[in-house]
Specification:
single chain, 137 residues, alpha+beta, 2 domains, two-stranded antiparallel ribbon, two-stranded antiparallel sheet, 2 helices, 19% helix
């Protein structure tokens, strides 16, 4: 049995910054947990003496929380969906998406920022596609 680390974040409805935290447990986009609340599933120190090593267990738990939160606040998980406000659609209903470090002039609403010199992946979700999608029409 470990020490549960419970935490939550609240939406301030305004952008906020989060400091760089070189002392944290390092996470990245692949291994971070995309949650704004830590529940009973966040435990640390399961194999340690919960009394004698309490401060080390607590400190490690905080380093994990701050490490995960650093990724969520300071790294982008960009995307565009058909419900995005201001999205520019073509006359046929299709959507042009631009990916790059800088947005093309006038196309900011259809732009996904990428980091210079880094790769990126595409995930395409289709909900109830019609026959033209399958027929490639």
């Amino acid at each position: 049995m470990g020490t549960s680390v419970q935490w939550f974040a609240r939406n301030n409805k305004a952008p906020s910054t989060f400091p760089q935290t070189p002392w944290v447990v390092q996470f990245d986009e692949k291994n971070c947990i995309k949650k704004t609340k830590g529940d009973w599933d966040w435990e640390t120190g399961a194999m340690q003496d919960q009394i004698k090593e309490l401060e080390r267990i607590r400190d490690y738990g905080l380093r994990v929380i701050f490490g995960n939160w650093t990724v969520l606040k300071n790294h982008q998980f960009p995307g565009i969906d058909g419900n995005k406000k201001g999205l520019q659609k073509n006359s046929d209903g299709s959507i042009d998406v631009y990916v790059g470090p800088k947005a093309p002039a006038g196309k900011e609403s259809n732009w996904i920022q990428s980091a210079p010199g880094k790769g990126w992946n595409t995930l395409l979700r289709l909900y109830g596609p019609l026959e033209p999608w399958f027929d490639k029409a």
